[in-house]
Amino acid sequence: MDPLSVLREYAIRGELDRVSRIGDELRFGSEYAFPASAVTAYRSKQGGFYHLDALLFFARHHQLKHTDYLQSARHHRVTTVTLPDRKALLDYLLGRTASSDAVSLLPPPTSSAANAVEEYRPDDPSLPIEEPPSSAPAVDAYAADQPATVAVDYVAMIRSLERPLKDREAFLECRNHDFHAVLLASTKREEERQRLESQQRKDGLVAKTRLIGTDDHHRPVVAAYGGGGDDVADAVGSKPKMHLKGSKIGEGVPIILVPSAYSTLITIHNVKEFLEDGIFVPTDAKVKALQGPKPDCVTVQKKLSRDRAVAAYEVRDKPSGFKPEDWDRVVAVFVLGKEWQFKDWPFKDHVEIFNKIIGFYVRFEDDSVESAKTVKQWNVKIISISKHKRHQDRAAALEVWDRLEEFMRSRSHT
Which domain holds residue 227? Predict the structure, then answer.
């Protein structure tokens, strides 16, 4: 019989006290004798096979706490059974389980091991059955805690001791991690629905604005900056009033201009996600996912608050074809920081532009001061966002909405 089967048979019968060690041999009563270092067929989860003396020592001392067992095994200079192997091995040795996946074929024996198993017939039946100290060479503390292996997988041992250093929140804030693909996939269906509804919403809002005029000098246009409710009810049935040139806000949905250059952070491609959802998505990522031609106009609404009425704005990036009545509807502009952005605009200079239109300059918070040197000379609001902390985008978008709505109120009462 093989050493593991013999040991298991003695453990099941409760006769482990009949096993004695004489020199380098383990003698199972008067029936069998094996080398103490004989490799058994029981494989550790770490990949190696346990030696017979290690399994015998464990079977005799399994009732000890694992730490006490480790100390005792080191004292007797016997390799130990690892903690992950303890329960399954004990169940197998004591016969609680009929078989075990850990029992497998042994590697081919060496010439010395091939003749190691033999029946034993002691000449002197009075030989001691106590287990004297082993004559095995001393081993260090780490080696004593490992099963005997044909080849030690040190990489697996290191990985078993690894612990996570970052949680989900910290990982999302790490540099050089790109989650844009996940974001685009999660919003793709919503974007398709909004694309189909945008034109219908735009037409309905324009019709609503035409029905709602200003009753006096102090009453603003409802759809321009978020009015609604009672104002809409008051306007129903009244004669529509048209906005004339020179009035506070032109007829129709207010317009927000963005640069047509991709080098700026906010463009017609990503303005909707930024203003409506409070999420900054780089333009290049949006362009890659774009299906069809670039839109000439995007409709945005303030969805970041629980206001009863929601304002609607048109976002455009090509003002070159604007008519005077279109310029009357322009209320805000995201600036690129370059003079040529304002070429052919119907204004004398920057002072006039930013007195009639509120300006925003969006930049990364860790960009150099030089990048905003020109913009600081203009009457615009600088909005800083993080390159990696997307959870901070919402605050930046709300700041844009707050400034814009404040500007709209002041413009309507001017």
Answer: 180-412
